[in-house]
């Protein structure tokens, strides 16, 4: 099941910095920057729980399902 994260959009829509996001959630800088910079980095359940608990949001606000053909198109374009 291909999914991508929407962390960048989530953070940007709230007008907070990655640093503030890190401080709010208690996630490591490595995790925060990886999630923010790479939409294909799927958050571990522990990270997902921390984000959802901190901001009182549903997981669907943080990740989205991607049709397999869109993933295939992305892979083809990087070759």
TrEMBL record:
GO molecular function list: DNA binding
SUPFAM superfamilies on file: lambda repressor-like DNA-binding domains
Gene3D superfamilies: lambda repressor-like DNA-binding domains
Chain ranges of the HTH cro/C1-type domain: 6-67
Source species, domain of life: Bacteria
Pfam families the record matches: HTH_26
InterPro entries reported in the protein's UniProt record: Cro/C1-type_HTH (IPR001387), Lambda_DNA-bd_dom_sf (IPR010982)
The protein, known as: HTH cro/C1-type domain-containing protein
Organism: Nostoc commune NIES-4072
